User: Fold these one by one.
Assistant:
Number 1:
Amino acid sequence: MGGLSELSRYWIRLKEGFLSIFILLSLICVWEIIARAGIFVYLMPPFSLIVLRLIEMLVTGVLTRHILISLARSFIGFTVAAALGVSLGIVMGWSKRVYRVVDPIIELMRPLPAIALIPLAILFLGIGEAPKFFIISFACFWPILTNTVYGVRGVDDYLIKSAKSMNAKQGDLLVKVAVPAASPYIFGGLRISLAVSFIMLIGSEMVAAQNGLGFLILLYEETFRIKEMYAVLILLVLLAYLTSRILLKIEDHFIAWHKAITIKKR
C-alpha cells in the first residue's frame, strides 16, 4: 500500500508538471501568434526570434560580463541582508527587552521604499558599486528580519519547557531549539528577499550603472532594439528562477523534517 501510494503521488506530481509546462507553452504560442499576426508589429516581436537572438547573444559572449556583474551585485546585497536580518531577527525574537526597544524603529523604517533611497545612496556613497549593494541589502533586509523575528517568537513553548526539563542551557535553547524551529520562517523570508534582490538590482542598474542586465534593458529600450530588450528580460527571468530553485534545494536539505510533517507531505 505504501509503495502504491508513493507511486500515485509520483504520477500526480508528473501530471501537474506537464500541466504547468502546457500552460507556459500555450502562453508562448499565443505570444507567437499575436506577433506573427502583426498586431503589435514593432513592440512585440515573435517569441521564437527573441529566443534565437538570446542564444546568439549568449554564444557570442555579449551578455557574459553583464550576467556576472549583475549576479555578483545581487548575491552580495542578498548575503549582507541575510546575515544582518537573521542575526538581528534571532536577537529580537529571543529577547523581549531588545524587541520592545528595536521594534518601533523597525516599524518606522520598514515601509520606506528602497528605490526612493537611490539618490541618497548615490549622494553619500558615490556612483560605484556601494550604492547598489546598499539598495539591494536595504530592500532584502526587512522580509528576512520580520520572518526571523516572528519565527523565533512563535516557537512552541512546550519545546522550550521540554528542553529545560532536560537541563538545557540558555545557549542550547536558542541554538538547538528556537533557531531550528524558526527555520521555516527564516527560509520563507530568504525566498521573498531573493526575488526582491533581483527587482532592486534591475532598478538600481537602470538608474546608476554602466553595465549589468538592468543597464542593458534600458539601453536596448532607448535605442529601440526591442528583440534584444526582450531577450535580456527572458534571461533575467531564467536566472531568477534558477537561483530560486537553488535556494529551495538548500531549504529542502536543512528543513526536510518540517516538510515531512506539513501540507507538502500530502
Number 2:
Amino acid sequence: MTQFDVEAVRRRFPALQLTHDGRPLVFFDGPGGTQVPDSVIEAVTRYYRESNANHGGAFETSRRSDEIVEAAHEAIADLVGVDADEITFGPNMTTLTFHVSRSIGAALRPGDEIIVTGLDHQANVDPWLAMARDRDLVVRTWEPHLDDCTLRLIDLTALISPRTRLVAFGWASNAVGTINPVAEIADIARRTGAWTYVDAVHAAPHVALDARAVGVDFLACSVYKFFGPHVGALYVRREVADSLPTYKVRPAPHRFETGTGNFEGYAGTLAAVDYLADLGARFGDVPASASRRTRIVAGMAAVRAYEIELYGRLARGLARIGGVRLVGLGLADVERRTPTAAIAVEGHQPHDVATRLGDEGINVWDGDFYATGLIERLGLAPDGVVRIGLTHYNTEAEVDRLLAALADIAASTPALTATA
C-alpha cells in the first residue's frame, strides 16, 4: 500500500489552518462531526451558483439539481455497497430512524419483540422504545460487558426468540469505539426471522461499510460524520422496503423521503464520497479508473491502517499517564475498535478537562454523547467521560501535544467546583 501522506490530506481541509492563541487548532472532535475537504465546500457553493432550484422543473437549473440528487444517491449506495434506489436521504440518522420506525411499527403486532443494546447511541434505542409504547410491543435489552464495553453473541442468542422482529444495534460505539461483529449479529437475527437495524454513524469515517455483505436490513449514517454536510442517509433492503407501509405526501415519488430535500447538502454528500474514493486512488493502490466502490473500499483500508497506527501511539501514551483510565477495549484489542478513546482523569471532572484542553487549542468532547444508557451503566453519569476522536487528518505531533497537556492536567490540583 502506498505510504499515507497525512500532510497532503491536511492541505485539503481549510479548517485545519485555524489557530488559537498563535498555535494550530487540533481537531480531536471528529465523532461529533468532522471537518470537510475543499471539494465539499466547493460543491455546495457551486450548487448555489449553478443549480439552485426545486425538484422536477422543466428548466435547466432544476434538471441540474435533479442530476445532482440522483448522483448523490448513487454515491451513498457505492459507499454502503447497495443500489441507489435503496437509499433514503434525510436531515440526520436520528430523524430518519424516528421516521422509518413509524413504518416498521405498522408492520408489527402487539406482543412482538424488539432487541436494543445498552451500548448504543440513544438514536437507535429511543425510537424503538417509543414505537413499543405505541404498539404494545416488548423491548428486550442486550447488555454489554462493562469490563471492556463489548456485546457478546452468546448473550444475544439467549435473548432472541421466535417473537423477535427487530434487532437494533450499532456498527461501532460512538462513545467508546467498540466495533461490533455485524455479520454474525445479522446472521443470528435472520435465522430467527428478525430484521436488523444498524447505526453506522460512528463506523462510516473509519471502516469500509458493506451492508449487503453483512446481511443487514437497515443501515443509517450521517454524512457530517464522514467529511460532508449535515445530511443523513438510510439504506433499506429493497424487499423489506416493499413490505412496509409508507407515510408520505401522495404524489411524492420516493417511499420515505418527505418534503423538499437539502439539495445543496446532497451536492456536498456526493463530493464527500468522491473524496473517500480519491483516497483509494491515491493511497490504496487501485487505479483512478477503477469503480468508485472499489476506490472507496481501498481508501477506507488506507484510512484504517493509518488511524490504527496513530491510535496505538495515543493509547500507549495514555497508559503512561498516572490517573488516566481508558474506558473499553485496550490496545491489545485495537482491531475491534475505532480510533476513539473515552477516558477518565482521576480527580478531574470531564468538562473541566475538556475546557482546559480547549483553552490550549485542543478540541475534544466531554459528556455522554447521547450514549446515555452506556454511561449510566458504567457509573459515570451524569458527567460522562472525555472523548478523544482521531481521524485520518490527525498527526503524531497532535497526539503528542494532547498527551503532554493531559499529563499536566492529571498532575495538577483539581479546580474547586462551586456548590449552591
Number 3:
Amino acid sequence: MTGPDWTGRILELEVGPVAHGGHCVSRVDGRVVFVRHALPGELVRAEVTEDKGGSFCRADAVEVLRAAPERVEPPCPLAVPGQCGGCDWQHATPEYQRELKGRVVAEQLQRLAGLEWPIEVEALPGGALGWRSRVRLVAGRDGRAGLRAHRSHRVVALERCLIAVPDMLDGAVERRWRPGTEIEVTSDGDGRVHARELATVRGKRRSRQLTGGVAVQHAAGRDWRFQAHGFWQVHPAAADTFAEVVGEWAQASPGALAWDLYAGVGLFAAVLAAQVGPAGHVVAVESGHRAVRDGEQNLADLSQVSWRAGRTEHVLRSLSGEPEVVVLDPPRSGAGREVVEALTAAAPERIVYVACDPAALARDIATFGGSGYRLERLRAFDAFPMTHHVECVALLTR
C-alpha cells in the first residue's frame, strides 16, 4: 500500500489503547497511527514523524487538548517529543505505567498464545528514578555524550540522566569525545563506576577500559565478580527478586538434574545448585566465553555445576539426561522454536522462563503449548520504570 507521505502533518487524534513499544494506537482515514507521548483516552494534536507509505505511520503528541487523569509533567525536560528516546512513559504516574505494561503483557498473551491472563505488574524497591545501573552513551558531532532520539541517529546531549544511578554518568558527560564514540558506564553493587569506550578506527571496532573493569554484585546470598560490561540485571533489585521467584517455582529435588540456559555468570545456576545439593547436577549453558569463565570462578565451590560454552540451540543437541527442571533467561528475541522443541523433547516436569519481552514470551508459550506444556503461573515486574520494558517470569508445566 502506498499513498501520500504524511510526515510533518499535524493530526487531531482520539488516543486509543496502549500498544507494545511505548506508544498508543489511533486511527485516521483507515490508517493506524502509533502515537508516543500520549495516553489512552486523550485528545491530542500529533505530528507525524515517520511515514513509509504503508498501513501505519508514527507520530508524537505535541499538544494535549484533553489530558488523561494519570498524566503528569515529565521529571526530565528531555523526555518530550523530539528529544531523548530513552524513556517512554515519564508523562504518566508510576502506578499507571505499571497498569499500561500489564495491559500490554495481557494483550500479547491473548493475541499470540490465545490465553486470557490477568496481569498485575509489580514494582521493585527504590522508586521510578535513579535505578538504571548500566547506560550506553554515544558522542554527538560536538563530542558531547548523550542518548539518541527515538528511532533516530541524532544524539541528544545529556547533563544528567534521572533514571540512571545518581552521579554514575558525571565523568562521561563532563568530557568531550571523538564523535561517534560509544561509552558504556556501569555502576556495580558496591557503588563503583566502570567505564569503557567503544570506537571504530579505520574500520576496526576497538574497546578501551577507562575505569574499573571487574564488577562486584550481591545476589542470591552470594558475592559475584565478573567483567563489568557483561550481562547482569540492570535494576539493582532485579537479580535478587528474580532469583527468589525462580527458586520458589523451580523446586528442584535433592539429587536431581537441572539445566540453566542462557546462564550468564550463573545466578540461577547457583539457586538450582542449592536445591539439588552435592548429589545433584546443574548444567549451565552460556554463549559468552568470558561469562562462562566468570561463572566457573564464581561457582567454583559448587562441584555440582558444570558449564557448557556455546549457543543454546547448538549445545542442547549434545545434552543428555532427563532434567527435572529447566530455567531459561533468553535474550529479547526469545528462545525460539528450535530451543523450545528441544526442551519439550527432554520432557522436564517444570520450566521457569525469565523474559524481557512479552511478545517473544507469548510466542514461545504458544510453541510450548503445542507440545503439551501449559502456563501455570506468571509474575510481571517493573524492572525498567519510565520505559516500555517489562520483565516477566513464567512457570510452565507438563
Number 4:
Amino acid sequence: MQLATAQTLDIPRYRRHLDAELCAFNEGWGLYAERLADEIGLYSSGIARLGMLSFAALRACRLVVDTGMHHLGWSRQQAIDFMYSRTATTSVNARNEIDRYIAWPGQALAYVTGKREIVRLRERAQHALGPRFDLRRFHHAVLRNGAIPLTLLDEEIERWTTTEA
C-alpha cells in the first residue's frame, strides 16, 4: 500500500519507487500494518490470526539467525537448522531466508526497527493529542511523503502532531 501511495505523489521519480533503500520505512510499515490488522480485528478467524502469529515468529527468528551468522559466526547450515526447527516454514524457504540474510546483513533488524518506530511515533502522538488523535489522519501523515528515513518521519509526525493540537 505504501509503495502504491508513493507512486501517486508529486515527488521526484526515484523516490516514488524506493524500496530497498528505505527498507526500515517500507517494511516497517508492512509489519505495522499486520499489527494494526490484528489490533482492529480484521483477521477473519483464529486460523487466519494464527497465520499472522506464525509469520511474526518467523520474523523473530530472522533476528536471531541474522545476529547468529553475522556476530556469532554461525554457519549457513546452523542458521538454516535453527530457523527450520523453530518456525512453521519449509526447509526450502528456510534456506532462501538464510541466503537472503547472508547477502543483506541487518535487513531483518531494519524491518523491526521501522515497525517499532512507527508504533513509538503513534504512541507519542496519541499521548500528545489525547482524544483529538485520529488514527486515519496519523496514517496519512506517515504515508503522505512516500518512503523517508525514520529520522525525517519523526520530524514529520512531530510537525503533524503540532498542527493537530
